Amino acid sequence: MSKIIQFPEQLDSFEYKRVKISELILAHEVDQATQLYRKWFMAKETGSAQQTLLSFTVWKSGQELEREEEYELAAKCHRAVVDMDPTHQSAYKRLFLCLERAGQYEAAIRVCDEAIGMEEGNIFRDEWTKGGWYGRRSRATKKL
Predict the structure, then answer these.
(1) Measuring CA to CA, how many Å separate 68 from each of 28, 65, 102?
(2) Whole-angstrom Cα distance, residue 82 to residue 50?
(3) 144 has pLDDT over 80
(4) What is the Cα–Cα distance from 9 to 12, expressed in whole angstroms?
(5) Would you place residue 108 in the very low, low, confident or very high pLDDT band (cuts 50, 70, 90)?
(6) Domain count of the fold of the chain
(7) I need a labelling partner for 65 at 20 to 30 A (CA). Which of 2, 37, 82, 100 fits?
(8) Are 97 and 104 contacting, i.e. CB atoms less than 8 angstroms apart?
(9) Spatial CA neighbour of 79 closest among 53, 108, 122
(10) Is there a domain that residue 84 lies in?
């Protein structure tokens, strides 16, 4: 018998918010979860550890959806992270992969173009893969 943990409604702790976002995403209520994420992210100090943890929660929960092969839902999670924290290079990568796996090649190419712009602006560098964002863009273009 599984034990259900219920939080009091008045509890407004940061951990409760992270758990709530994660639970909603894993229940496939991604639109509601990302709406809360955006709201709570904006309420925190820019560049704070709490913003980073909120982004990590959404990003990691998106990866769980990927394991379930729910690529379109996972892409929504990664898009929310990229929108709120455009320096989150791993979210760009996961977003690209989800869109590619969902067959949304034009959207995947647009993500590559966004990331290439970030690289050209020296916001981040892709040194993890041989072809980098140009290689990913080429791969998606061939699939059109």
Answers:
(1) 11, 5, 13
(2) 16
(3) yes
(4) 8
(5) very high
(6) 1
(7) 2
(8) no
(9) 108
(10) yes
Which has the closest alpha carbon to 125: 92, 79, 84, 80?
92
Q: Which residue has the higher pLDDT, 119 or 99?
A: 99
Quote the CA–CA distance of 111 and 79 in Å, as a whole number. 9
Average pLDDT over residues 89-110: 97
| Alpha-carbon separation of residue 44 from 9, 36, 68, 78, 112 (angstroms) | 21, 13, 31, 19, 29
Local confidence band at 4 (pLDDT 50, 70, 90 cut-offs) = low
Q: Is residue 113 a part of any domain in this protein?
A: yes
pLDDT of 2 strictly over 50 = no
What CATH code is carried by the domain that includes residue 90? Answer: 1.25.40.10
* Amino acid 9: pLDDT: 57
